[in-house]
Amino acid sequence: MGRMARRLFIGSGGALIALGGVSILGCGLRGNRQGATLERLSVMLADIVDPIRIGQAACETIGIAGLQEEAGANVHVSEALTIQCAATRRARLRAGCQADFAQGRIVVCDRYVLSRTEMLVAGLLHADALS
Amino acid sequence: MIRDGRTISPDDAATQCDVLIVGGGPAGITLALELENSGLRVVLLESGGDEFDDRIQQLNDGRLTALDTTDLSAASLRMLGGATNHWGGHCLPLDRIDLERAPLSGLSGWPFRYADMHDYYVKASTYCETGALDYDLDAIAGLGPDDLLLSDPRIETRLIRQSTPTNFGTAYGPVLKASETVDVWTWTTAVGIDIDESGLADTVHTRSSEGVPGRFRAREVILACGAVENARLLLANNARIGRSFGNRNGLLGSCYMDHPLGGAAFLHLQQPTRKRANWSHGLQTRDGVDAHLVWRLSDEELERERLNNTQFFLIPLSDDPDERAQQRRRAKGLEGLKSTAKWVLGRDQKNFRLSASYCDMIQNADALAVHAYQEITGGERVSRLLLRYETEQQPNRENYVALDEGARDAFGMPRAVLNWSPTLEDRDSIVRSAIRIGAIVGERGLGRIELEDHFDLRYWDASTAWHQLGTTRMSIDPGQGVVDPDSRLHGTRNLYVTGGSVFCSGGRANPTMTIVALAVRLAEHLRSKRGG
C-alpha cells in the first residue's frame, strides 16, 4: 500500500512538471506565432492609477508618433509584447516600471509621477482606443 | 513673586536686578526658571497678565503686505505663557542637517552642531513635558516594520512627541509666584532700551497697561518677545537713539520665516491597505507620551537633491463621495467636540460660540461614533492618502518685519509691518520632494504620487503654522546676523535676544522645543558670565 502511494505521488508530481514544461513551451511558441499586439499591453491597465487621464495627457504632450517611437525603443514594452502569458507579461511590465523609477526614468504626466513605461503604455492604449 | 503693574508703581528697589527678561512666553519663563537658583536677581516683564486682554493684545497688531494667512494680532499672545496659550504641542528637536547645513539661500547657518544642543534639548523635553529625548521609532512600544506603510532608508518615518500641550503660564506661573529671586511684573510693556556708546544697555523703559511710565535697571537685558516684537522693539529703539545696533548689514527684522503648510500630493496605493501607524491616533511612547508619525526624506536625499527639510503627514482619504461626505461630517463633529472641550478647560475663547460648536458635535455624532468604531477595530482600508507638508523656508531678505511709521500703537510705538510669503524656491522644493517620494514609492511598488493641483496659484494655497522665526538671526559674523553665538546683540555688551527670532534656519520642526532649549543655553551663559 505504502509503495503504491509513493509511486502514485512520484508519478503525479512528474506529470505535473511535464505539463508545466509543455505549457510554458506552448505559451512561448504561441506567442511567437501570433505576434505582438498592442492589446497585450492592456494587462497593465489595472496597475495604472487613472489610465484615461494619463493616456490622454501622454498623447497630448508626446503625440502618437512620439509614443510609438519611444515604445519601440523601450525594452520593457518590447519584451512584454513578446510574452504570451498575461500574468507573466503583467509582471514584466510591473518590474519594468519599478526599474524605471529606480533608474530615474520618470515623468510627471498631468501631475502624476510615473515611470516612462507606464506613461507609454497608457498613451499607446489611449491612442489605440481612439483609432 | 508676581507684581501687578497696573496697581504697583515701580520703585528703585524693586526695579534693580541682575537680569531683566522682556517677555513671559516659553523662552522668557524658561530663562527665569533656569536662573532662579543662580543667586542672580531676575525681573521678568510681561505685557499682559494671566488672562487674555484684547486691549493689550492689540499692541501686536500690524499690517501684512504679502500673504495674509497669518495674523499679527493673534499669532503670539501677550499673556503669561505667550504662544503656549494656544500652541498645538508638537515637539521635536531640529534635525542634525538643520544645524549642520547652511541655508540653501546662501546665508550663514547655526554656529553650533546638534551635539552641542543635546543636553539643552534634554532639559527642554522636561519643560515641554514630552518625556525622554528619544525620537527613534523604538521609543514606541510594539511598533514593528509591519505597522509602517514603508520601510526605506530614503523616506524616513519619524516621530513627533505631543506635549499636553504645556501652557508655560499655568504650568510654571505658580513656581514664579513662589520664587524669592524672580519678580514677574505683569501688565508691564517694554517700550525702549537705553544703550550707551560702548554698547552697554542699562535701562529699560516701560508702560503699565494704563500707560504709566516706569524704568527698570539691569546688568543684563534679554528680549524674549517673539520674532515680530523683538524686531519691532529693536528697530524702534535704534530709531529712537539714532543707532544701528545689530543691524550692520540691514539684517535686523529680515529673514523672517514660518513653516508653510498645505497639501503636497496624493499617494494612490497599489493595493488597499489596512490601517498603519503612519496615520493612527493613539500612538504612545514607552514613557507615556502621545506621538505622531511623519515621513521625511533622509538627510542624504536632502543633501543630494538640495531640498528644504520637509515633513509629510499621511492622511487617509476616500474615493467614495459618500465616504468623503462622511469624513467632512466627522471632521466638523470633531472640531465641535474639540472647541467645546477647550472652552470647558478655559482655553481658546476668543472666537468660540457654544451654540455652533454644540450643534456641530450633536449633528455629526453618528459620523464620530462610526469613526471611533473603525479606530478601535482597525477595519477601515485605505487606498489613497494625502501627503500634507510642513516645510522649512529658506531665509531671505525679501521676507521681513519693518516699522510702519504711519501707524502707532497705544504707547506711541510704530506698529509692525510684515512682508512675508513663501517663495518660488520653497514651492519648487516641495514639488521636487514629492516627485522624489513618487520615484521611491514607485520603485518599491507601493503606489503612485499625484501632485496637488494648486502649485501654479499665487502662493500655491500655502497656509502658515504661525511660527514666527528669524528676524534677529544668529551668526558669528555681524555681517550675516544680528546676534552672536551667545545670543548677544552684535555691537552691545549685555543686550541679548532669544526665542524664534534667532533661528538661522527653521528645519521642519515646531520651534517651541528649540526655543526652550536655546533659553536653557542662554541661562547657562548668563550664569557663567555672572558667576551665578
Summarize the structure.
The complex is a heterodimer of chains A (131) and B (532). With 131 residues, chain A is mainly alpha-helical. Chain A is built from 6 helices and 2 strands, in the order αααααββα.
What does this structure look like?
The complex is a heterodimer of chains A (131) and B (532). Chain A is mainly alpha-helical and 131 residues long. In chain A, helix 2 (51-62) packs across helix 6, helix 3 (64-73) crosses helix 6 (116-130) and helix 4 (75-81) packs antiparallel against helix 5 (86-102). Mean pLDDT of chain A is 81; it is low at 19-35. The longest helix of chain A is centred in the N-terminal third of the chain and has 33 residues, at 2-34. In chain A, strand 1 (106-109) and strand 2 form a beta hairpin. The N and C termini of chain A lie far apart (65 Å). Chain A has helices at residues 2-34, 51-62, 64-73, 75-81, 86-102, 116-130, and strands at residues 106-109, 112-115. Chain B has 532 residues and is α/β, with parallel strands linked by helices. Chain B is 30% helix and 24% strand. In chain B, strands 5, 6, 11, 12, 13, 14, 15, 18 and 19 form a 9-stranded antiparallel β-sheet that branches. In chain B, strands 1, 2, 3, 7, 8, 9, 10 and 20 form an 8-stranded mixed β-sheet that branches. Chain B has a 3-stranded mixed β-sheet with strand order 4-17-16, covered by helices on one side. Chain B is globular and about 70 Å long. The model of chain B has no long low-confidence stretch (mean pLDDT 92). At the A-B interface, helix 5 and strand 2 of A face strand 11, helix 13 and strand 18 of B. Strand 2 (112-115) of chain A pairs antiparallel with strand 18 of chain B, so a sheet runs across the interface.
